[in-house]
Design brief:
Elements (H helix, E strand, L loop, with lengths): L1 E12 L12 H11 L1 E16 L2 E14 L7 E13 L4
Antiparallel strand pairs: 1-2, 2-3, 3-4
């Protein structure tokens, strides 16, 4: 069975300060990371394909996501694709 997926999606982008010692550059790295942090909101568009055979379920999900930043800054949007493979067994009593 195929299902079209449309949903609202959010993202929190945390640039972090990177790996390294806390030296004289620490404050500059922290300031740069704070400027790149962002909160975004957008949508998901995807397809969900499931196959049931007795108690066994196998499925695949393919989607694209695009979020737009809610605050001003150098990062204005985030785009991602994903693929998931799922499987499971119904153990109803």
């Amino acid at each position: 069975m195929a299902t079209l997926v449309q949903a609202l999606s959010g993202v929190v982008g945390n640039a972090g300060t990177g790996e390294g010692p806390q030296d004289d550059n620490w404050n500059a790295r922290a300031a740069a990371a704070e400027e790149l942090d962002f909160l975004g909101l957008g949508g998901i568009l995807g397809i969900n394909l499931d196959m049931h055979r007795g108690p066994v379920l196998v499925g695949i999900v393919l989607d694209i996501r695009e979020q737009f930043a809610l605050d001003a800054g150098p990062v204005t949007r985030s785009f991602a694709t994903s693929a998931q493979l799922r499987w499971g067994i119904d153990i109803s009593l």
